[in-house]
Design a protein that fits this description.
- The complex is a heterodimer of chains A (126) and B (367).
- With 126 residues, chain A is α+β, with helices and mostly antiparallel strands.
- Chain A has a single domain, classed as Beta Barrel (OB fold (Dihydrolipoamide Acetyltransferase, E2P)).
- Chain A has four helices and nine strands; from the N terminus they run E-E-E-H-E-E-E-E-E-H-H-E-H.
- Among the domains of chain B are: 143 residues, Probable tRNA modification gtpase trme, domain 1 (Gyrase A, domain 2, 2-Layer Sandwich), CATH 3.30.1360; 74 residues, Aminomethyltransferase beta-barrel domains (Elongation Factor Tu (Ef-tu), domain 3, Beta Barrel).
- The chains are: A alpha+beta (126), B alpha+beta (367).
- Chains A and B meet through strand 4 and strand 6 of A and helix 7 of B.
Chain lengths: 126, 367
């Protein structure tokens, strides 16, 4: 399955959508399918400053706890409150309603450390 | 010598064809899930689920002395079992800790089946052989015999089309040798999900045919293949111990709340002295059920506090679909904390979350 265009990706199966200096971050279809039924999501606090690739929260499936790594650094502007009451949104709409949080990006150059849809697709196929 | 090779059950290809996600478990590659743990859990609670349990080790026991021999090695009564009975039991070490929890099936006067956990199979085979008795012939069928379980409220209706016997009349924890479509099987009304259901023991070469036929003919009635992930949530809700979690070489059946299975009235058996002492002193750490406040799941190993003092640790934990998605856990805690209704706290990533001590099981099937 091709990866959605217009997004950047991390090796840890997160995606970033850039809109000016604002980055919206989520997990990929591959990630949600690998995790299975998601029952709890712990996100960073609004206002927190995150460094690129830092471990900044967890996603819990029925079986396991997995770390979330932010694919890009910055200050947290907003977190997806819908996930608190409906974590399975992440399973159903990983690229849509299941977004995780938004950041004000600190360093534009960090995008160069991310993958294109084509490059990420090679990883997600393994 | 331990064989580190990961083995496959006779149903391996069937699991792949169904999209099973295979993981190593107890020395075998087993399906942890097919579609979704929650969907499979739901199928078992509402309709029925089909499980491959062929990784569990099946040992044949034969001889006039099996009952007496097993009584000396286990905590529950064996010799008093009648042909056609199945019984849960525990092999203990001399300190009262558990080597394994098992089920004995008595087929007739001389023939028995002993089923042990896959992960304990090498240890248990060595253990029973170390205590060999000339009057007890031991045969290891691990890998040669398959085990398929159908579990859920519709299992009687579904399986009835496959057998000539009256399944509704079979007692819980009874077993019968019969045939299914010309294949010899041992059929038992046993399980590990908290639901009604059956376990079918048969020679491995026939397993795929039976598995495929059950799925093909019962799928419309709602039968779904179910993996080890669903099984673990189901057994936890039903308050059943999982070896390595609620029972270990260090955690005795008394500590695990399995006193009903420990027959201290029996003459000498392995571990009896230690278990008697535990019961008399009543100072042992014990397994309790916890119902957590909030949405964060507790996991095995998390620390449990009573006030400011460490009371013990979580042994199993999960979100519980049968309990309105509340988070449940078992924990091994000090006796002072093991009081029904007590407010304890589970430490999760540095934060303490309230948890109330509740009676086990968490879930009982509607009767």
């Amino acid at each position: 399955m091709p990866q959605p265009a217009g997004l950047l990706y991390s090796k840890e199966h997160e995606w970033v959508k850039m809109d000016g200096q604002t980055a919206t971050i989520g997990i990929t279809e591959y990630a949600q399918a690998s995790l299975g039924d998601i029952v709890y999501v712990e996100l960073p606090r609004v206002g927190a400053t995150l460094g690129q690739f830092d471990s900044i929260g967890v996603i819990e499936s029925v079986k396991a706890v997995s770390d979330i790594y932010t694919p890009i650094g910055g200050e947290v502007l907003e977190v997806n409150g819908d996930l608190e009451n409906d974590p399975s949104l992440l399973n159903r709409e990983p690229f849509g309603g299941g977004w995780l949080f938004k950041l004000k990006v600190t360093d534009d150059n960090e995008r160069n450390n991310l993958l294109s849809p084509e490059k990420y697709d090679e990883i997600a196929r393994d | 010598m331990i064989d580190e090779t990961v083995r496959r059950t006779a149903l391996f290809d069937a699991h792949l064809a169904l999209g099973g996600r295979m993981v190593p478990f107890g020395g075998f590659e087993m399906p942890v899930q097919y579609s979704s743990i929650l969907k499979e859990h739901d199928a078992v609670r509402r309709r029925a689920g089909l499980f491959d349990l062929s990784h569990m080790a099946q040992y044949g026991l034969r001889g006039a002395r099996v009952g007496e021999w097993a009584d000396a090695l286990t905590v529950n009564n064996v010799a008093t079992m009648k042909p056609g009975q199945a019984r849960y039991n525990i092999f203990c070490n001399e300190a009262g800790g558990a080597h394994d929890d098992v089920i004995f099936y008595r087929l007739d006067d001389e023939r028995w089946l002993l089923v042990v956990n896959a992960g304990n199979a090498p240890k248990m085979w060595a253990h029973i052989n170390a205590h060999a008795d000339p009057g007890v012939e031991l045969t290891n069928h691990h890998g040669e015999r398959a085990l398929i379980a159908i579990q859920g409220p519709k299992s009687v209706a579904m399986l009835s089309a496959f057998v000539d016997i009256d399944l509704a009349a079979m007692k819980y924890y009874s077993c019968v040798e019969t045939t299914i479509r010309g294949v010899d099987v041992l059929l038992a009304r046993t399980g590990y999900t908290g639901e009604d259901g059956f376990e079918i023991f048969l020679d491995s070469p026939f397993a795929t045919n039976l598995w495929d036929a059950l799925l093909a003919e019962c799928r419309e009635a709602g039968l779904e293949p179910a993996g080890l992930g669903a099984r673990d949530v189901l057994r936890l809700e039903a308050g059943m111990p999982l070896y390595g979690h609620e029972l270990t070489e260090e955690i005795s059946p008394i500590q695990a709340g399995l006193k009903w299975a420990v027959k201290l009235s029996k003459p000498a058996f392995r571990g009896k002295g230690a278990l008697e002492h535990q019961v008399a002193a009543d100072t042992y750490d014990r397994i309790v059920g916890l119902m957590l406040e909030g949405k964060v799941p507790a996991r095995a190993g998390y620390r449990v506090f009573a006030g400011d003092s460490l009371a013990g640790d979580v042994r199993s934990g999960s979100m519980a679909p049968s309990l309105e998605n509340r988070n449940i856990a078992t924990a091994l805690v000090a006796p002072s904390a093991a009081v029904e209704g007590a407010q304890l706290a589970v430490e999760i990533r540095g934060t303490r979350h309230l948890a109330r001590v509740v009676p086990l099981p968490f879930y009982k099937r509607p009767t």
